[in-house]
Amino acid sequence: RRCARRVIRPALRANSNQGNTNVDVSFILGKDMDVAVQDVRDKIGPIVNQFGRDASAPVIQKSDPDSGAVLTVAIYGDRDFKELSEIVDEQIKQVLETTSGVAEIEFSGERRRQIQILLNADRLYAYGVTVDQVRNAIQRQNVEIPGGTFISGPSQIALRTLGRLSNVPDFNRIILSQRNGSVVTLGDVARIVDTVREPNSIARVDGKNSVALSIRKQTGTNSVAVVQAVLARLETIKETLPKDLNVAIRQNQATFIERSIDDIQHHLIYGSLLASLVVLFFLRNIRTTIIAALAIPVSLIGTFIVMNIFGLTLNNMTLLALSLATGIVIDDAIVVLENIFRYVEEKGVSPRQAASEATAEIGLAVLATTLSLDVILLPVV
Questions:
Q1: Which of 280, 285, 380 is nearest to 325 (CA)?
Q2: What residues in the chain have per-residue pLDDT under 50?
Q3: N vs C: which end of the chain shows fewer Cβ within 10 Å?
Q4: 8 A C-beta contact, residue 164 and residue 142
């Protein structure tokens, strides 16, 4: 932690910057991530006490490519930045966090309230007070401890001692030391400023400063469903917000997903129609064309059953696979139908007999062709 080390070993990478250290741990494929995260916690737990006194508790989380922000909302208006941040936190962020499927909401561009204590080095030296004394005195004034219990009739009531400061002027009255009958307070050696944290991010809407909320969904949940639920809750929240605040949607991943799925669906429908027209053009038989056209939805319905058994959903990848598989279905249907059609036209057998004999004649070859295409696409899986 004392220096910036990049690569420790192939499966472990650390990067240290001012004030923080990030360690990325990679596991082999097939490792249960829940078990892996627990293993990491078990290793870090015993060494937490070796960290510095000011070090915050380590945060352990899974790196999931599905955990990106699905929706970004910006709130802006003609208000003080600190007030705007408090409104967004209390009236929007905390409410949206209770929406089903929402895992985390991150702030951007906010200005959180911060009480700054600006120490005067000369006065500290003159009064003989150290910085540690100041810090310890402030910590003692911001604790809540049990105060015992007392019995009132049939009831036993628990007490607690409230030591939290409620007003900024109260900081000036914190006692740091007592010497020769005189009391040294924090106001004697420092200046208290009620301000905001130093900004480290900025968010703007059309050139206006704003507070942005990046909403992340829970792993495994439906992105579109989560976005729709958040937007519905946001419409309810807008009714309670001050009239001078505006809410803008800056990023909506559901829009991209819906458009992508819509495009794939159109390609699937257009491909099926064009394939049916090709069959009609070459065979010039309406009945045969209808049979070829029906082979597509029948095959897709059968595929949906298998997908449901294996827990697969309709997404960009599976819909793309269905659109590619449609061509294979049409190829097989055309080959089989053409052979059946030939049996009926050339040999004069009944349609039922032609279907049986013609399919048996080329069924193995068609199956081998289809399986060879499956083997070619298998590495993609």
A1: 380
A2: 1-10
A3: C
A4: yes
> For the chain, what is the radius of gyration of the CA atoms?
34
C-alpha to C-alpha distance for 338 and 343, rounded to whole angstroms: 9
Strands in 120-222 per DSSP E: 144-152, 155-162, 175-179, 182-185, 190-196, 204-205, 208-209, 211-217
Q: Return all residues near 146 (Cβ < 8 A) that are at least 6 apart.
A: 158, 159, 160, 161
Selection from 90, 88, 87 nearest residue 73 by Cα: 88
**Nearest of 240, 292, 252, 246 to residue 271 by alpha carbon:** 292
- The 10s digit of each residue's pLDDT in 136-172 is 888 877 777 777 788 878 888 887 776 667 788 888 8
What is the token pair recorded at 186? 């924090």
Contact 110, 85 (CB under 8 A): yes
Report yes or no on whether pTM surpasses 0.70.
no
